[in-house]
């Protein structure tokens, strides 16, 4: 199964915070699954780190290289992904999440997320409960 990890799932999986739900860990560790991360997630991490929030310290370049070294597949953002955002209802306004939804829809990849606000969308998804 092809799985696109939402940004928070990527962070929980790589930062060993103890926040990664058991079901997410099982899916990530299943060798039969192809794991994808989006370039938009790297952009989101870089942006938030650049804002120097006291509770957010994560180097985007290190995250990306670690994901690639672990065998994750990088999903670039294309014009098709960007254009398809226009077809998504405005139930959720976060631009990073909207692009991840668009990518999952365009590429027919399941989005692995703990964000229940995304449940209304007709996009392939796997929901996990936050710890």
What labels would you give this structure?
131 residues, alpha/beta, Rossmann fold, 5-stranded parallel β-sheet, 6 helices, 5 strands
Give a brief description:
With 131 residues, the chain is α/β, with parallel strands linked by helices. 44% of the residues lie in helices and 15% in strands. The protein contains 6 helices and 5 strands; from the N terminus they run E-H-H-E-H-H-E-H-H-E-E.
Q: How would you describe this protein?
A:
With 131 residues, this protein is an alpha/beta fold. It has one domain: Rossmann fold (3-Layer(aba) Sandwich), CATH 3.40.50.1010. It is 44% helix and 15% strand. The protein contains six helices and five strands. It has helices at residues 7-15, 22-29, 39-50, 60-69, 79-84, 95-107, and strands at 2-5, 34-38, 73-75, 110-113, 125-127. It has a five-stranded parallel β-sheet with strand order 3-2-1-4-5. The chain is globular and about 35 Å long. The mean pLDDT is 93.
